[in-house]
Specification:
12 helices
Length: 263
């Protein structure tokens, strides 16, 4: 149990800005095993986003409450995945070879593709969350909004980490911060990731049965993203995982809106 807690806190330390016990560090072995808790981090991020949204909705308009909840999720993760998304936009937008794409993604400066991509991403996220939260009113004590946010963050993280289980890491630089995650995994990481990634979705489907279908478009996008990364850089990087998480989160919101409209 003590070792498992250490692995969990390693995931919290690596994927968020939440303070952890002083004995927790980025030990490669624990960091590799922490992938099983990546979707569980989505529970934490989604839960914090909901609390900010719920409290803000009593004071401000729904639109402002949504913006504040998005800001909360960014602050909790330190824009970890948003940064990866911007890097992927720059790398794949400006590079035409594997070496050039990887070089651009490693550059800390944001370019035109990254800036445009992140603006469009946030616009989609904002508009879709406004529509969803207008549909799921606080009349149900906020449970619907809570499960929607937790499911979006956990399922998108499952889609991202599942790429580790099916594809090879692209960079040869052993000093890469995300390299330990890609070194190896066991059935515990696979089962843990899918358990924490899918459980909120099943809970959400008890309230809104049609939401169970949202897993289909999310993993369709995950498949094509992984295929695209494989084609251009022979695998994936940490930035690719971050981009996958962000894209699949938005796909979840858009799919939920579509399901509400047609089913």
């Amino acid at each position: 149990m003590k070792k498992e807690l250490h692995i969990f806190f390693t995931a919290v330390l690596f994927y968020t800005r939440i303070p952890c016990p002083k004995n927790i560090n980025h030990h490669p072995d624990y960091l590799n095993k922490a992938s099983r808790y990546f979707p569980l981090i989505g529970w934490i991020v989604g839960g914090i986003s909901f609390v900010v949204y719920y409290l803000s909705a009593f004071v401000f308009s729904n639109e402002i409450a949504v913006i504040l909840s998005i800001i909360a999720s960014i602050l909790v993760t330190g824009a970890f995945h948003e940064d990866g998304f911007a890097d992927v936009c720059d790398g794949f937008g400006g590079g035409w070879t594997k070496e050039k794409i990887l070089l651009i993604m490693k550059d800390s400066a944001i370019g035109a593709y990254g800036a445009i991509g992140i603006v469009l991403l946030f616009l989609l996220k904002f508009q879709s969350l406004v529509q969803l939260t207008n549909k799921v009113q606080i009349s149900d004590s906020g449970l619907g909004v809570l499960l929607l946010l937790i499911t979006a963050h956990s399922l998108s993280r499952l889609a991202a980490i599942s790429i580790v289980f099916t594809h090879e890491y692209s960079r040869e630089d052993a000093t890469s911060k995300s390299k330990p995650i890609a070194q190896n995994f066991t059935w515990r990481e696979v089962i843990g990731a899918f358990f924490f990634g899918l459980l909120p979705l099943f809970a959400l489907s008890f309230i809104y049965a049609q939401m169970l279908l949202v897993v289909i478009p999310v993993f369709i996008f995950r498949y094509f993203l992984a295929r695209y990364f494989q084609k251009w850089i022979d695998g994936y990087t940490g930035d690719c995982l971050g981009a996958t998480q962000q894209v699949c989160e938005v796909v979840f919101y858009l799919s939920a809106i579509a399901l509400w409209k047609f089913i």
